[in-house]
Specification:
single chain; about 150 residues; mainly alpha; three-stranded antiparallel β-sheet
Length: about 150
């Protein structure tokens, strides 16, 4: 059965979707009969998929071999350059970067994780630790410190 529920705004529709999915339940979580992989709303927030090791290897192999094809890297590079050259895209991307910087977020939307020793924060982020102590000759983190999440 298909039922259409009208909504005044997009936000109302998203809120209704989240509510209905929580009430009916998701099959992948064993809480209901819906085949949604997310809790609803925009994008894929709340998705809980994990890939098997075999699938990860296949994906890695596919990615590696794709960039071995002649012209593949250039094609991606050219599309990215063109994306940033459009004035309307530049304004949007610039605004997003400024918003992330103001919120203290880094690339990927993650906050920097503190560097701790025995539970005591000694540097606010890995970058600040590397800036202060250097990264080492092998490019690996200093073995005297643990990076915790």
């Amino acid at each position: 059965m298909i039922k259409i529920i009208p909504a005044e705004t997009r936000e109302d529709a998203i809120e209704m979707e989240i509510l209905l999915i929580s009430l009916i339940g998701r099959d992948d979580l064993g809480t209901g009969s819906l085949f949604n992989f997310t809790n609803g709303g925009e994008g894929t927030a709340g998705i809980k998929r994990t890939h098997s090791e075999a699938t990860k290897l296949k994906m890695s192999y596919s990615h590696i071999t794709h960039f071995q094809k002649p012209g593949a890297r250039e094609k991606v590079r050219d599309s990215q350059v063109a994306r940033f050259q459009r004035p309307e895209n530049r304004e949007v991307l610039s605004g997003k970067m400024k918003d992330r910087a103001a919120a203290g977020l880094h690339k990927g939307g993650r906050r920097p994780q503190p560097c701790t020793v025995d539970g005591i924060t000694i540097y606010p982020s890995r970058k600040s630790l590397i800036d202060a102590l250097g990264q080492g000759c092998l490019g690996v983190k200093n073995p005297d410190f643990r990076y915790t999440k």
